[in-house]
Amino acid sequence: MILKNVCFYNELFEKEAADLRIENGKIAEIGIIPESGRDMSGLTALPGFVDIHIHGAMGGDFCDASRESLDKISAYLAKNGITSFCPATMTLGFAELEKIMKAGCDYRGGEVGAKLVGINMEGPYISCEKKGAQNGAFIRKGSIEEFDRLFEASGGLIKLITVAPEAFDSDDFIAHASKKCTVSIGHTAANAEQTLRGIKAGITHATHLFNAMTGMTHREAGAVGTVLDNINISCELICDSGHICPAVLRNTFKILGENRACVISDSMRAAGLGAGEYELGGQQVYVKEGGKYAVLANSTIAASITNVFEEFKNLLAFGIDFKTALKSCTINPARAIGLDSQIGSIATGKAADLVFVDGEMNIREVYINGTLA
Fold first, then answer.
1. Collapsing DSSP states into helix, strand and coil, what is residue 368?
2. How many helices (H) and strands (E) does the chain have?
3. Which of 132, 135, 121, 61 is nearest to 283 (CA)?
4. What is the dihedral of CA 148, 153, 155, 156, to 10 degrees?
């Protein structure tokens, strides 16, 4: 397939115009191609968006461990310009997590929309003090044996795991897990010293920065200040304007620059549906009419109900520059899970994941592996 007169953002995230040849699901050629093809004049191609932290959408949740629920998530994401995703687990018992991992492994390759490119293991090795909407009954110390069994059940698909480094003697666990996937600090009560120790052991990522972790003050950097200060740490940000206010987002992007922020949805099954009562990790959560996220019965903020493309438009409205916002939704999250050579930007040899938008940033067409979704 050849797409003609494509205005797109290249691997440097600079705007250019060329023809694209797509073969076997990948971008085979970028340039002036003499053959005829489909004229894409009037539209702009963005790289397919990447969500590395999503629990569910359209009534489905990854923890349902069912193809039906994953189909709902995959189709919803594709419709909204997200072409690759890592569904996230909740803090649950081993048997349940093993079942979920196997479901993710079995689903890969049979997606109805967005590609399942990895699994995000959020918990259970976290802090009770900062559990947020996670179920405290299943929080436990990190176990290398348990992690390895879950990694095997996933078919090696676990790309991220969240750990509270202070919650147990975690150095060996972090060092071990970091050889197999990205280890992220999150749901943590760690102070600056404990955070630095975790980074030394192998932490390179932060789970939904600011939320469910120790904040930064002028005398104690906490987890937030410590990861912001470390240029080797990528940081997830929920940009629904509810989890983090726009002013804090603007200041955070000034620190992180254009290469460290990873926009995530952290959405749950209410995404795409709206107000109502739902289930998340075995607990009842509620979404108010016009709400931006779900809450527990005690009003603890839980998961979001947005998607990464909507968050991208939020960032533009908040004053974040286009290039930084786009990279934070595409190549940065791809890099955080080690897949930036395959997805996350428009370049020869990479997957033909393209989101065509009009001048008002409305999605017109989405291609996943070169196929119109």
1. strand
2. 10, 23
3. 135
4. -30
Which residues, including other chains, have CB under 8 Å from residue 166's CB and lie 6 or more apart?
127, 188, 189, 190, 191, 194, 198
DSSP type of residue 163: E
Ordered alpha helix ranges (H), 123-273: 144-153, 171-177, 192-201, 222-229, 246-256
Cα(210)–Cα(207) distance, integer angstroms: 9
**Residue 274's pLDDT is what?**
84
Q: What is the pTM of this model?
A: 0.97
Q: What is the DSSP letter of 290?
A: T
Place of tokens 């193809």: 67
pLDDT tens per residue, range 255-291: 999 999 999 999 999 999 989 999 888 889 999 998 8
Look at residues 76, 222, 196, 330 and name the one whose alpha carbon lies nearest to residue 322.
330
Residue 108 has a pLDDT of 97
Contact 133, 100 (CB under 8 A): no
Catalytic residues: 266
